[in-house]
Amino acid sequence: MPIPAESTAITIQRLSISPVSNSVISRHVAVIGAGAAGLVTARELRRKGHSVVVFERGDQVGGTWVYTAMVESDCLGLDPTRTKVHSSLYGSLRTNLPREAMGFSDYPFFYRDDPDRDPRRFPGHREVLMYLKDFAREFRICELVRFETEVVRVRLMEGSKWNVKSRKRDEDEAGFDEIFDAVVVCNGHHTEPRIAWIPGMNEWPGKQMHSHNYRVPEPFRDQVVVLIGSSASAVDISQDIAGVAKEVHIAARTVGDETFGKQPGYDNMWLHPMIGSVSGDGTVYFQDGSFVLADVILHCTGYKYDFPFLETNGVVTVDDNRVGPLYKHVFPPALAPWLSFVGLTWKVIPFPMFELQSKWIAGVLSNQLMLPSQEEMMEDVETLYSSLEAAGTPKRYTHCMGISQFEYNSWLAAQCGCPGNEEWRVQMYHAHGRNKLARSKAFRDEWEDHHLVLQAHEDFIKYTSNGVSDKCVSE
Ligand code: FAD
Fold first, then answer.
1. For the residues 304-333, what does the mean pLDDT come to?
2. Predicted TM-score of the model (pTM)
3. Of 21, 40, 146, 295, which is least packed with CB atoms within 10 Å of its CB?
4. Residues 6+ apart with CB under 8 A from 454
5. What was the pLDDT predicted at 23?
């Protein structure tokens, strides 16, 4: 889906980026969103001396981690006029990464000795929000944030400047226009549901919803629920619901045939191949011919990238969940470095990657780091697209990384002249992956990588003893 083009044609004039220079340049930069990505981006930009405005439509920092019991008016997320809720968190959510690995590299996510905090290695969602609030407080980010202020339009102007129109909640209907040198988009990508299209779904009489609107299991008591998906959320939610539902049937595309059938440890959960079709009498047919009469279909089928405010004259588009073209998932070559994105990648350890992406952006904007030419960046993008195509990888996996995240992080770190992945963090990610496979129900409470936890804590001492980190801070 292309991002809407502007009505007036605009010449994209790419300002030349001079070679690495000693004279540090300060830019006026708009950051959209005060989630983990926007917070660390604001910190890195300010460290490089840029003047930063963070626009946040919510009333607090934290983005996804601000849990709300509210759900949207259209639970499937198809109605574009529905009232939107940003966060997709459910009440029982505990992190799916160990906290040592999850935190920013220089602001460790360790347990604070406070009875109000969650000491667990895989804490509940509130603890993550508290951590992000601590981070914002430590680095005085809130003073840069305009809360309850939604960016409604980002328009490219002549001369590569950006017109940013924002609207304060309950105020100025017309909005407020400002000019910025650069815009960093940190708006998150877990808000706009992607739905599995199923033959017959419009006639199916039961309740359909997307996991974006799942909060607590109680409404599913005694119901027969078919849940589509096999992601971390799908696994969590199926276990949550199994505690109260009559039956839980999981329809998954990406599991081996041998795992289909009744699930060990449950007397009311079955794993099936994908749904083939559904019918008006309430039956759900799976692709292997088996079927159930169900009350609810719960789509745990992921999210769409969405930038409703962005007008780039068609330079940046979203096509089957590929945002592009983007050099290294961050800069659109034709608009670099004046437009950039932090946090598009998935199946990664997000926070430390956001940190590296934002260091890179901040360094390039201050002329301390150099980007290749537009043509070279485009070539790099084309090479990525060709390799994905050759491997038969659908476009929607363009920003999916998995283990290649560590090579990517090392590349970013090398650009910035920073230390890359800590060895313990890499090893912990792998150990955690193995533990999750071995203990799908208990991985958050039982593990074997105690030596890596110790190594992480040894590493953390250098940040906690000085208070604020001095790692890679060159103002
Ligand atoms: P968000 O946190 O979504 O923040 C985006 C911000 O932008 C929001 O505050 C929003 O209000 C604001 N915004 C959006 N549009 C506008 C606009 N037009 N104007 C102004 N403001 C705007 N990660 C982990 O590391 N560990 C986990 O265990 C983990 N579990 C997860 C579980 C779930 C269910 C989900 C959905 C995600 C999970 N993640 C986890 C990934 C999580 O998304 C990232 O950790 C991270 O929080 C993403 O941060 P972000 O800043 O990119 O986006």
1. 97
2. 0.93
3. 21
4. none
5. 64
Mean pLDDT computed over 351-355:
98
Q: Which atom of ligand 1 is nearest to the CA of 36?
A: 51
Which pLDDT value is given to residue 261? 87
| CB of 40 closer than 6 angstroms to any ligand 1 atom | no
Q: DSSP assignment of 204-222, as one string?
A: --SEEEEGGG---SGGGTT
| 224, containing H or E segment | strand 224-228
Q: Which has the higher per-residue pLDDT, 279 or 172?
A: 279
What pLDDT, on the 0 to 100 scale, is given for residue 171?
Answer: 80
**68 with 175: CB under 8 angstroms?**
no
Nearest CA to ligand 1 atom 45: 350
pLDDT at 465: 63
Give the residue, by CA position, lying nearest to ligand 1 atom 18.
151
Residue of 64, 84, 340 to mutate, ligand 1, most atoms within 8 A of C-beta: 64
Task: With a cut of 90, say whether residue 440 has pLDDT above it.
Answer: no
Range 453-460 contact pairs with CB under 8 angstroms and sequence separation of 24 or more = 453/98, 453/100, 453/121, 453/428, 455/423, 455/424, 456/100, 456/101, 456/108, 456/422, 456/424, 456/425, 456/428, 457/100, 457/110, 459/108, 459/422, 459/424, 460/100, 460/108, 460/110
Q: Say how many Å lie between the CA of residue 62 and the centre of ligand 1.
A: 7
Protein residue with least CA distance to atom 12, ligand 1: 33
The rounded percent of the chain whose pLDDT value lies above 70 is 91
Q: Is the CB of 98 under 6 A from ligand 1?
A: no
Determine whether the shortest distance from the Cβ of 63 to ligand 1 is under 6 A.
Answer: yes
Cβ–ligand 1 contact at 123 (below 6 Å):
no
